[in-house]
Amino acid sequence: xxxxxxxxxxxxxGQAQKEVTHNDALVRLDALIDLYIIDRDLAAPPxxxxxxxxxxxxxxxTGAWVGQAGNIAYCIDGGWRFYVPVKGLVAYVADEQTxxxxxxxxWVSLVSALAFQNLSKLGILTAADTTNRLAVKSDAVLLSHDxxxxxxxxxxxxxxxxxxxxxxxxxxxxxxxxRALFGLLGDDDFTIKVSPNGSTFFTGLVIDRSTGQFKLPIxxxxxxxxxxxxxxxxxxxxxxxxxxxxxxxxxAFDAGNNRFAAPFAGIYTFxxxxxxxxxxxxxxxxxxxxxxxxVELGRGRAVSGAPVDDVTTYNLTVLTxxxxxxxxxxxxxxxxxxxxxxxxxxxxxxxxxx
Length: 354
Known about the structure:
single chain; mainly beta; 7-stranded antiparallel beta sheet; 2 helices; rod-shaped
């Protein structure tokens, strides 16, 4: 009786010509161990095979391979020996550069046979570890919808975290030093952060999970007002003392000096609304303007003739470019007679645009 898997013959006790049985077993082992298949698509024997060449015989074989479809054809001594594959036999197919394994369903790709379920780690061209259980080194990574099964045509990537206080996001690095992040970072709002050095981070955008509203936390925005009647002497440019802030993101508005200071260069928009209050005789004309670094901005004025007490309001909105640390304030000029800028009815605001 031969061995149950490869059919290797046993040498019987007292057997004559033992070398025949032994040599047949060696040939089988030479053919089947570390099986190297040259081709598995041929139905007829190749023209000039060399001893040791092995093929998988394709369907409807002819010539010396007749009746051997699906078997292994092994060239030895100028002829062919045929072996029936057994389950678990692994072969390398040279012309396809792939590894196949014989199963109850026939020859299948080794990858398909293994199924790669519940792997502890997987590294592609690099080593995975217990933190980065999937590690890939590649110029590009492609994820495509399933057109084989086929699937729905959709492609979704899911990042799932255990609790609101955890992170589910993407990290972008330069030399393994983080430069940007986006995702659910420490809460369930969608957030984008950037960093110049991997340790200091600035939050550029937050989208509220409950309302969908977005916030620009780093952008300077303010709204200020004056809580007392500002006395304005006649015929002189006087700064309006906006000394209180309803809002003041990034603390860019200086209530003590009644001015806005740009924390960084960019395009900003500013506006004011101020109401006149009479002292005795009303001025013959009132002019209101924005000043930049102590000089009139030159982007327009709010001007009127003789104002009406507690009625006339001056409004102006301007879009302008600022360098870092440029200062903006509001100034007025009352012609001929003095007066006031009215408390709680006069406002100054601004914000960064781009």
